[in-house]
Write a structure and sequence with these properties.
heterodimer, A: alpha/beta, 6 strands
């Protein structure tokens, strides 16, 4: 699968999917005008990719600063896909990164942790 | 006369603690521009980053609710996200706390289920609101779902006290809905 890089927009995050290296990252703010249009293709590609790398390993980094509720649902969808992938035998490391003092993002890390048992979920304050 | 009238409006707003107000048709691009100005104003005033983030989040969800659910909309057939709809949104501070208010006209038939949801949220403490948010986000993790429910829960979650709402019936079919949220 070809690597996918989308630079951060004014209301959309940077997408850095290095499929060959099995390293995926989203960084920045997410409140796109049309969350389904922005996240839909990413989520579909992720699902196909996760199926293809079954049994291997995957590193995902989420370094969000703000996201609205439509984007929160897309992130939850992504996290559920990763959990299912890990349950299927792929070693998945997910790093949730937030800026020191950012209570909202720290708390979202707690929220997402409740969905994850098979993923190696690492919460990192920077 | 012209200046006196407008100056009075400006002074009245200031007396009510309003730092920012918008009344009229709002689209996603106006939301974005207003949000940018709001962030800039709060950051120039050296407002705590967490407070700023909460104010901004409540502002975005409220503005998106106007865009999607105001019944005064220019293009009802358009997708809910790309509508241009009329409403009122104000941000201000009162006794050292920020508030975000919104108001729009809606159908009375839609107001009843909305009121039930608002009442339910008012009855929950912060821990229960957080649990409710998680339950909803897990259930609605579909990119196609607009999820007004989740928006209201997010608003309640960022609030520092129970959200306040009111309805003023305009005629048999429509009502004016208001939501006031203290951060």
């Amino acid at each position: 699968m070809k690597n996918l890089f989308i630079a951060a927009g004014e209301r959309s995050p940077e997408v850095d999917f290095r499929f060959e290296e099995r390293r995926l990252a989203l960084r920045g703010e997410a409140f796109p005008e049309d969350a389904a249009a922005f996240f839909g293709p990413l989520l579909r590609q992720l699902a196909v990719y996760c199926e293809a790398i079954r049994g291997q390993d995957l590193q995902v980094e989420l370094q969000m600063e703000y996201f609205n509720t439509s984007s929160a649902k897309a992130l939850m969808n992504m996290i559920q896909t990763l959990e299912a992938t890990a349950r299927g035998g792929t070693r998945v490391v997910l790093r949730w990164i937030w800026q020191e003092g950012d209570e909202v993002m720290r708390e979202f890390g707690e929220d997402f942790a409740t969905e994850l048992t098979h993923v190696d979920f690492q919460r990192v304050q920077i | 006369m012209l200046a006196a009238e407008h100056y009075r409006m400006k002074i009245e707003s200031r007396q009510r603690g309003i730092i920012f107000s918008f009344n009229g048709f709002i689209s996603e691009s106006i939301l974005f521009a207003l949000g940018k100005a709001l962030k800039r104003k709060l950051s120039l005033d050296a407002i705590n980053a967490n407070t700023m983030k909460r104010v901004f989040s409540v502002f975005v969800e409220q503005a998106q609710n106007i865009i999607r659910y105001s019944c005064e909309t220019l293009d009802r057939d358009a997708l809910e996200d790309s509508r241009i709809s009329s409403g009122l949104i104000t941000v201000g501070s009162e006794d050292g706390r920020f508030f975000v208010n919104c108001g729009n006209v809606m159908r009375r038939d839609d107001a009843r289920p909305l009121q039930a949801r608002l009442e339910q949220l008012r009855g929950l403490d912060p821990a229960a609101i957080k649990a409710f948010y998680l339950e909803k986000i897990k259930a609605e993790a579909e990119p196609t779902s607009l999820g007004a429910n989740l928006g209201l829960i997010e608003i309640a979650r960022r609030a520092s006290e129970p959200i306040q709402y009111d309805f003023l019936d305009i005629d048999d079919a429509t009502t004016f809905y208001c939501l006031k949220v203290f951060i």
